[in-house]
Amino acid sequence: MSDTELMKKLLDGTLDPVELENNPHLYVLAERIYGREALLEMDILGPKININSLTEERPITTSDVEIPEFLPDINSIVKNQDSTIKKRRKMILLIGFSGLLTIITNIYFGMGKILCSLGLANMKEVCTEGNTRVVWLRGTSWDGLHQIETWKEPGSLEFFDTALIVLFSLMSIIGIFVKKKINTS
Predict the structure, then answer these.
(1) pLDDT tens by residue, 20-63
(2) Against a cut of 0.70, is the pTM above it?
(3) What is the DSSP letter of 157?
(4) Which of 13, 62, 125, 133 is the most buried (most CB within 10 A)?
């Protein structure tokens, strides 16, 4: 009987157990399909397999083994492992630039001039007399903004204004030049 006919009988379940016990290849296949427990319940014992007869004794020579000559590019491996993206610090740049613009506008034009032109400020001392520059240390609260001492003549520079200009300038420079690293792996 040919191997294909034996295989069909095995899959149909019509193969004689004697033929299965005599053929080690079919037995291994039946064991994988039906399971060892099912074959033992049918009283089918596996064939005795001589391990020495199945393996061929062949000496290994060095001419049989070929090692490919492959030199990996270390730089590409290191770049792939360090997959980080550098992104600009947009929030720091936005805060630094808007703070710098606000301080400079307050020094040269006065924030009160803008508030009066928008109708948000209606203090006579601010809108009509030209005292439109905010002194930042005094105008930190809503009540502080309504005090006459909070408003000065624009064009003068105080120490706190200089400190704020330096702070917001540094924030703008950090936002432009220093990038944050984001890991993508």
Answers:
(1) 777 888 888 888 888 888 888 887 777 665 655 555 555 656 56
(2) no
(3) -
(4) 133
